[in-house]
Amino acid sequence: MTSTPLQTLPTDDQRVVYAGISWQQFKLIQAGFAQSPGVRLGYYHNTIEILMPGRDHEMVSRLIGFLIGLFCLENAIEFEPTGSMTQEKEGEVSAQADESYCFGESKPIPDLSIEVVFTSGGMGKLQRYQALGVPEVWFWEDGVFSLHRLRGDGYESIDRSEIPELATLDMALLGRCVLLAQTSRLEAANEFRQGLRS
C-alpha cells in the first residue's frame, strides 16, 4: 500500500490587478468570489485587486493576530477582532485587511487595519483606507512594522500606536515575537508575555 504525500500549500501570494472596472462590475466579481473565503478583494479608483494569500502570508497574519489578542487579554482590554471583514463605502472603495480590530466597542469601520506585505502593493493600499476613514493602518513587511495614523488629508508615519488601548504596546517586542513565532509559537508567546510583564 502506497501513501499519498500531503499537498504542499503554495507559500507565494498570487496577486492580480485590473483597471477600468466599474463599481457594478466589481460587485459582480465580488459575488462570484463569495464562496472563496481565502481570496481578498480590494477596489478603489476603478481598479480591482484580487489577492490569494500564500501559506507564509496567512501564517504571519495569524501570528500577529494571536499576539495582539494576547496583549489585549494580558492588559484587560476589550477588543473585537474583525479579521478580514469587508470594509466598504458604497460606489467608491472596498478593502479586506489581513487583520482588523475595534477596541472598546464595536464600530462599522475598525480602529486598526493590518496588512501583511509579501508582494507589491502595500503602501498603495493607504489610499483605500483613507477613503474608508480607518484611523490607523499597520504594515508588516520584511520583518518590520510600519505604522500610519490618519490626519486630515492623509496618513502620517508614527513610531507607536496612537490608539489609546495600544499606546503601551512595544512594537519592537511585537515584531521580534512575530519573527520568533514562525519557528515556535510557544516560545514566542512566553517571550511576549515576559516582555509585557517586565
Give an overview of the whole structure.
The protein is built from five helices and eleven strands; from the N terminus they run βαββαβββββαβββαα. By secondary structure, the protein is α+β, with helices and mostly antiparallel strands. The strands form two sheets. Strands 4-7-8-9-10-11 form a six-stranded mixed sheet. Helix 2 (55-74) crosses helix 4 (171-181) and helix 2 (55-74) runs parallel beside helix 5 (185-197).
In short:
The chain is α+β, with helices and mostly antiparallel strands and 198 residues long. Helix content is 31%, strand content 29%.
Biggest sheet: strand arrangement = 4-7-8-9-10-11
Biggest sheet character: 6 strands, mixed
Helical/strand content category: alpha+beta
Considering DSSP H and I runs of 4 or more, what fraction of the residues is helical?
25-40%
- Roughly what is the average pLDDT, rounded to an integer? 89
Instruction: State the assembly state of the protein chains.
Output: single chain
- Name the shape in a single word: globular
Strand content: 25-35%
- H/E series: EHEEHEEEEEHEEEHH
Q: Helical region count?
A: 5
